[in-house]
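To: structure desk
From: M.T.
Subject: fold request, one chain
Message: Could you run this one when you get a chance? Sequence is below, nothing fancy, just the single chain.
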Amino acid sequence: MPNRSRVRSLAAAQLANSIGDGAYYVTSALYFTLVVGLSPTRIGLGLTLAWAVGAVAGVPLGALADRRGPRGASVLLALATAAAVFSFLVIRSYPAFLLAVVAYAVAQCGLAAARQALLAGLVEPERRTSVLARLQAILNAGLAVGAALGGLALQHGTRGGYLAVFALDGAGFVVCALILWRLPAVTPAGRTGAGPRLAVLRDRPYALVTLLNAVLLLRMPLLSLAVPLWIVAHTDAPGWLVSALFVLNTLGVMAFQVRVARGVDDLRTATRSVRRSGVVMLASCAVFAASASAGLGPWGAAAVLVAASVLQLVGEMQQSAGSWQLAFSLAPAHQVGQYQGFFGTGVPLARTVGPLVLTALLVTWGVPGWLLLGALFAVASAAIGPAARWAQATRDATAAPRAAAAR
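Reply: Done. Structure tokens follow.
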């Protein structure tokens, strides 16, 4: 299959499951609350537990993709995700809910690692970040379409409407699996050498890079949680601006992520992109803090918030492009799956810890909290470069004896 066709297939698979996911994200909480009858607190605890288990499972599932082949692992995990989503159709109790959401999170985290390993096997190293940028743009487009469909279900407000959303999401993952199965198989790495089976767990430099990236991923709950609470509690801006800023972010990633990622193709350009993102995020946090200034009025505060959101969008795209390249550049070629699974733990970690941290910093502390958060972004992004060079030096030191032994 030509390279262009491979990328188109990866994009089609991404679109197939992202539309259903978009609908699922905007309806699932209300379905479990209003239809199944679970309390929001129990739902939140269940989801936190599920993503914690999923984060841990991502590493061994990624390692399994390395040993058995990422295409087959991706297909099986996509089907497992579909099965978990379809199980939501018949859930009537909290224990069943817990089992279903844990299965969903485990399958999703494993699928993310396996798909990254599949992409690494199908796409040349210098093109991986640009392809991931295209997939991210398509992901956002699919989520936007799915969210609109989910909005129709919310307006309808019936059990049948919610169930239709879950059926759509499950079917999307089945279609995703079928598309991935049509891609060329990638030769599995198998069991190489006498090292530990999960080598990434002993790779301290890579763990440091992953931790710093997780700090930068605290930007993820900003627009969905922190900014809405900030707007309501600390500014005079109109409430509908929350939705407008979310749409701005989604459309911005769709339109510009590929362009921002252009030229990020090695370790040097990746660390530079991440470092710049920290500076931009520091500026964004300062502007967000300024939106609480007295005398701005509703429209003045709205204009400041839009400016801050644009800066946040630029920083997000720069950080994404750099982190994708770092995750691939620093992973051994025969262990991409487990390394991607470990690097991906930053996402559930940010989603779990982020709401607590951001609420304490921004809603409770206000302006000083914004400035502290911006400084945290700047410091973490600046530390990425030395950490990545340490990881690369460690990689070079272990690669030389392996190459000598091969000769």
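Reply (cont.): Residues 355 and 392 are 33 Å apart (CA to CA). Let me know if you need anything else for the meeting.
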